[in-house]
Design a protein that fits this description.
single chain; about 180 residues; alpha/beta; Rossmann fold; 3-stranded antiparallel beta sheet; 5 helices; 8 strands; globular
Length: about 180
């Protein structure tokens, strides 16, 4: 793992967000979710893997602010993707009914919109939410589908030849967002 991490660091063009900036973005997204609809019937669903971590943080911030626990689940969109056909078991963990709820899907980066579309399909296979919204830490543009995020930590215009990497301390040992040349 150390060699791979060092290899990735060597190709880094720029650090976009440091740990404090990631924390501020998560806090801002949390407050925007509260301001745009309150917490009644609200639930969060994080996309595996880094979206799930960000969703946990957002849920904790909303719970801390509002004094109530927010239902939180994780969603595996792999079986619903149209661009990467893989046969795999669905490892989603949503232990509440999404029907009639305002569901905020949380992901780390939105790029083409294909993952968000797959997430919507995966969510609709579990029920009929009142509303589905999307929160992302980074919006890098280049949509292939007519999908936009409702809550954005940072807009980051990129070229298609660049790669945006979100790192979270729970899986990567630190919080930051970097941009590098694509492999």
């Amino acid at each position: 793992m150390g060699d791979k991490m060092e290899e990735n660091i060597c190709r880094v063009k720029a650090e976009i967000l440091d740990g404090q900036a990631v924390c501020r973005a998560v806090t801002r997204i949390s407050f925007e979710i509260i301001e745009r609809g309150g917490t009644e019937n609200l639930c969060l669903v994080g996309l595996l893997s880094r979206g799930a971590v960000l969703a946990e943080r957002i849920a904790a911030k909303i719970s801390e602010t509002e004094g109530r626990k927010i239902p939180l689940g994780t969603l595996d969109v792999t079986p619903f993707r149209d661009d990467e056909k893989r046969i795999s078991a669905d490892s989603s963990d949503i232990d509440f009914d999404v029907t009639g709820k305002r569901v905020v899907i949380v992901d780390d980066v939105i790029f083409t919109g294909r993952t968000a579309r797959a997430a919507i399909d995966a969510l609709l296979s579990r029920g009929r939410p009142e509303a589905i919204q999307l929160a992302v830490l980074i919006d890098r543009g280049h949509r292939e589908l007519p999908i936009r995020a409702d809550y954005i930590g940072k807009n980051l215009p990129t070229s298609r030849g660049e790669k945006v990497k979100v790192m979270v301390r729970e899986t990567d040992g630190c919080d930051k967002v970097v941009i590098s040349e694509a492999d």
